TrEMBL record:
InterPro entries: CENP-P
PANTHER family, per the entry: CENTROMERE PROTEIN P
Pfam families: CENP-P (PF13096)
Keywords (A to Z) from UniProt: Coiled coil
UniProt record, GO biological process: CENP-A containing chromatin assembly
Source organism: Emberiza fucata
Name of the protein this chain belongs to: CENPP protein
Chain coiled-coil ranges: 6-33
Keyword Signal attributed: no
GO cellular component, one term: chromosome, centromeric region
Length: 190
């Protein structure tokens, strides 16, 4: 029985010695591969790669290209402002918390929709899971002048409770457009 135990130990020792020999050979091969290039050659390769990258970056971002891109974006923005009636006058964003998978930001928007001024404050929590990003709006606060319509203040309260920004902007756009129509109609009869 003792001979069986000793034999199993001998077999394990031989297997470990073979593994050590293979790892040593692999280490020596890797060391030799790394000595094929001198430090100067490695630095030259890095420098040439950096120059190529900078040349490509400079080529893509010429001032005339940037100006044309800016003009295109301004045209798109003015079209969207005219189409939706929203004119944003200010926006501020402050990052409250940032980790690898999660970002919490505080936003403040102010502007006018047709002739109705508004201000919106909210927190946006973006969470990244695998390759997907999800966003959640919280602490929504809407400030609007609801001059003569109490339904607007009720709508704003409900929207703040639900935290549904998309519904707010859609409804505000429709309401403000019809508000303008009513205002022009009443001015016509005065």
């Amino acid at each position: 029985m003792k001979e069986g135990i000793f034999q199993s130990y001998e077999n394990e020792i031989q297997a470990l010695e073979e593994e050590i020999r293979l790892l040593t050979e692999k280490y020596e091969d890797m060391r030799q591969e790394s000595t094929f290039f001198s430090d100067e050659e490695i630095l030259k390769a890095i420098k040439s790669l950096q120059e190529e990258t900078q040349g490509e970056t400079k080529g893509r971002e010429s001032p005339s290209d940037l100006k044309a891109q800016l003009e295109s974006l301004e045209t798109d923005l003015s079209f969207l402002m005219e189409f939706t009636g929203f004119h944003f006058t200010s926006h501020s964003k402050k990052t409250v918390e940032k980790t690898q998978n999660r970002t919490l930001q505080k936003h403040r928007l102010s502007g006018k929709c047709h002739s109705l001024p508004f201000q919106v404050e909210f927190q946006l929590l973006e969470m990244k899971k695998d390759e997907k990003v999800s966003a959640v709006v919280s602490d929504l606060s809407i400030i609007m002048e609801s001059r003569e319509d109490s339904n607007v203040s009720k709508f704003v309260s409900r929207t703040e409770e639900c935290g549904d920004l998309l519904t707010f902007f859609r409804s505000l756009s429709t309401y403000a457009e019809w508000y303008e129509h009513r205002r022009h109609t009443f001015l016509h009869f005065k």
